[in-house]
């Protein structure tokens, strides 16, 4: 079933900037031609405050999350992961992957997936190999020194690579042409204004 809904995990201390590029592109579809509804998912229905001080009320609760009505689960980084939390989101990711629905994790969320055994057999990346090794996971042999990695249904990136994370997720979802995705990274990571015309002409 094709769905136009993307679910995003919310937790106190969420690293806003890590998913900002991705959510903007998914919601607007400005360069892909396919907008998505963004549904936020919390551990409860209580508001959370992001690392940047933005207060958000979740649309849904993680225990009620159904992969069959989602195109993607996005797991931002933040304080929760390095404190050993986020297990509920990891279990949601497991349900998504079992259902064949992609999961995109950045920064600390990759450590959560590692602790849950979800990176043991998939190519992946993170902030650093040593960061994930500290979780005691068994997937070190699949670590890649890259800005973002598509490992089947799992997309991973480190905190320094929000644009590459966005580009990789767009690729995994089959959104935009390779030329448009390359131009997207050139503009928003490389500051290459000459590539902007490619983005503007994506749906001309």
Automatic annotation (TrEMBL):
Show where the DJ-1/PfpI domain sits: 6-171
Q: Which UniProt keywords apply?
A: Hydrolase, Protease
Q: List the molecular function annotations (GO) for this entry.
A: peptidase activity
Q: Which Pfam families match?
A: DJ-1_PfpI (PF01965)
Respond yes or no to whether keyword Hydrolase is given for this record: yes
**Gene Ontology CC annotation, any one:** cytoplasm
Cited InterPro entries: Class_I_gatase-like (IPR029062), DJ-1/PfpI (IPR002818), Prot/Nucl_acid_deglycase (IPR050325)
Residues annotated as signal peptide: none
GO BP, sorted A to Z: proteolysis
Q: What is this protein called?
A: Putative intracellular protease/amidase
